[in-house]
Amino acid sequence: MEGPFIRIEDSGEVIALRPEITTIGRGKGVDIRLTDPSVSRLHAEFVRRGPYLYVVDLGLSRNGTRVNGRPIARRVLDDGDVVSFGAARARVGGIPREDFTPEVELRRAAAPELTRREVDVLTSLCRPALSDEAFVAPATAREIADDLVVTEAAVKQHLLRLYQKFRIPEGTNRRTRLANEVVALGLVRPTPVIPTQRPTDPAHHHTPPTSSRRAS
């Protein structure tokens, strides 16, 4: 079979991946349908970019997505990797092997494995700061806690672990440096700001006067 494919572990079925995006889940509208009850209706997607393939967990399942047993939010795949969607497993094949230079390996290593909660914290951290990929200011620990409905202490613990994972040294503007690193690695994308519509107040509607002059 030419091009990337997956082999479903339970059935042995081999399925070719689409040229750009292949959705996977338990729902009827996905490209690859898995019947395991631990799989959500729209669970994840495979994305092809040139010779590269990566898998994205869509965050809609309580059971998450794993690559070789490790929980991921997004991960570039290598030939032979095992991807788990809940309890359902599939092995990836058909990906050309590539000899990476140390410089490329270093860049790949800069993006650590993240838990789903850490991804939530990073998304909340960057949400107010992203506008057309330009930085303003990241969210505070208090704002992240309010957004995720958790305690501020829990958020601070997650941030400490994230500082370690991304090797952000102690000092001023630590949250900003973390957020900049996350955006640079493409782990969080800018989200469009949806303007809040105020309710229409009939009392504030004025009909433009037809004329201020009276006929003489």
Automatic annotation (TrEMBL):
It holds the Pfam family FHA. CDD domains: FHA. Residues 190-216 are annotated as: Disordered. Keywords: Phosphoprotein. SUPFAM superfamilies: C-terminal effector domain of the bipartite response regulators, SMAD/FHA domain. Residues 22-72 form the FHA domain. This is FHA domain-containing protein. It comes from Microtetraspora malaysiensis.
